[in-house]
């Protein structure tokens, strides 16, 4: 027989969005005296993912930044360049460091309880929300759900859906192979095989790096395809035959401008990837989530229905056109990025992807891309 407990707020999922929201709540006086429940099927004790983001100067996660880089490298088929990215720094946070840091603060706070439990259903019941796990049932006044399923976005045809899917190896090499102050942001010199495929390399020393074989495409590959690509890159491109695989990670992030609005309710808000917080054109989620949490927090305080909050802006439309282009001609993705990096400095690219540019800077960025496919996509959306 299941027990029922009542909470003011229930957060489902202790990933980036769930933990950032929980941490923001316990450090805000508005929520003192409120009861908060955080649920996740996992205890978050493994290094299951790596988040990267660019930032100017110091930031809120600097204490747990594992490595940062002042240079990035881009390579296409005909053009490659190393860039100094000041005033930006490219930063890496390991999943385990993030979980440990935030859970440490959460565990000692009296207002919040963290429970390991697999959530199987979330539904509004009158003016409350019922959260069912395999063992217990909880009632919440407001529920924030970060559990994502691809069916949430693939049931519709209005917006294209691609995946940013990848497999990564963290390797240690016998000889020095890597430039420790340069992150390889995108290397399109590898075989494209009809998709948008690139290698992403994050060195933590001359002998250690995370290498990820990444695709922006519709379908995932068999596991061996990713592994063989990383092996080929290490041996052929980096001339490295002696290496040890220390850790592996694998993932898929939705790339879509689908609006997720139909999933929210007055007292249920989807957050993180499940709320459409992954940047549609890049899949970057961590910094996007960190920017949205304070906005959500202020909105919660108004007491307005949760489904009324809307993050949509003009960058949403730019992302939509980009995904239309990539979806229609996936093999041409490398050309879009190569043209952009050839014509524009990463400082403008980062600023645009952070949605911080002025309208005139938007035009400068857009004008750096191949014109024809984007004009066709624009006309397709307008007419």
Any idea how many domains? Answer: 3
DSSP helical segment count: 10
- The CATH topology assignment of the largest domain is FAD/NAD(P)-binding domain
Unreliably modeled segments: none
Helix content: 25-40%
What is the C-level CATH assignment of the largest domain? Alpha Beta
Known CATH architecture of the largest domain: 3-Layer(bba) Sandwich
Largest sheet: 7 strands, mixed
Structural class by sheet pairing and helices? alpha/beta
Strand content: 25-35%
Q: Could you tell me the mean pLDDT?
A: 96
CATH superfamily of the largest domain: FAD/NAD(P)-binding domain
Shape: globular
Separation, N- and C-terminal Cα atoms: 57 Å
Count of distinct strands:
17
Rg over C-alpha atoms, rounded to the nearest angstrom: 21 Å
**SSE string, helix = H, strand = E?**
EHEEEEEEHEEEEHEEEEHEEHHHHHH
Overview of the structural elements:
The protein is α/β, with parallel strands linked by helices and 383 residues long. The protein folds into 3 domains: 161 residues, FAD/NAD(P)-binding domain; 92 residues, Alpha-Beta Plaits (2-Layer Sandwich); 69 residues. Helix content is 30%, strand content 32%. It has 10 helices and 17 strands. Strands 1, 2, 8, 9, 10, 11 and 17 form a 7-stranded mixed beta sheet that branches. Strand 1, helix 1 and strand 2 form a beta-alpha-beta unit. The longest helix has 17 residues. The protein is globular, with a radius of gyration of 21 Å.
């Amino acid at each position: 027989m299941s027990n029922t407990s009542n909470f003011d707020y229930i957060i489902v999922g202790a990933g980036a969005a769930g933990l950032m929201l929980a941490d923001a709540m316990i450090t805000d006086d508005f929520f003192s005296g409120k009861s908060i429940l955080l649920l996740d099927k996992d205890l978050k004790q493994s290094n299951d993912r790596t988040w990267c983001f660019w930032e100017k100067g110091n930031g809120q996660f600097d204490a747990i930044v594992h490595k940062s880089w002042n240079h990035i490298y881009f390579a296409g088929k005909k053009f490659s360049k190393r860039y100094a990215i000041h005033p930006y720094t490219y930063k890496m946070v390991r999943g385990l460091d993030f979980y440990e840091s935030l859970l440490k603060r959460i565990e000692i706070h009296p207002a919040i309880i963290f429970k390991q439990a697999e959530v199987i259903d979330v539904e509004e019941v009158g003016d409350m929300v019922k959260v069912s796990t395999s063992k217990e049932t909880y009632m919440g006044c407001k529920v924030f759900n970060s559990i994502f399923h691809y069916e949430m976005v693939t049931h519709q045809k209005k917006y294209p859906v691609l995946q940013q899917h990848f497999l990564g190896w963290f390797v240690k090499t016998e000889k020095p192979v890597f430039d420790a102050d340069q992150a390889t942001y995108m290397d399109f010199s590898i075989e494209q095989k009809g998709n948008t495929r690139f290698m992403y390399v994050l060195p933590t020393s001359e002998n250690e790096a995370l290498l990820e074989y990444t695709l922006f495409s519709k379908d995932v590959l068999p596991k061996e395809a990713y592994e063989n690509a990383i092996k080929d890159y290490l041996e052929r491109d980096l001339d490295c035959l002696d290496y040890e695989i220390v850790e592996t990670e694998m993932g898929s992030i939705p790339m879509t401008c689908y609006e997720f609005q139909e999933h929210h309710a007055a007292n249920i808000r989807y957050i993180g990837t499940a709320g459409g917080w992954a940047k549609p054109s890049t899949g970057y989620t961590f910094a996007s989530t960190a920017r949205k949490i304070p906005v959500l927090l202020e909105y919660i305080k108004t007491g307005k229905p949760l489904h009324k909050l809307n993050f949509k802006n003009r960058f949403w439309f730019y992302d939509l056109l980009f995904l239309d282009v990539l979806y229609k001609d996936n093999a041409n993705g490398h050309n879009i990025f190569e043209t952009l990096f050839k014509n524009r400095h990463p400082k403008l690219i980062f600023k645009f992807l952070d949605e911080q540019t002025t309208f005139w800077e938007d035009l400068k960025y857009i004008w750096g891309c191949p014109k024809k496919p984007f004009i066709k996509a624009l006309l397709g959306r307008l007419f």
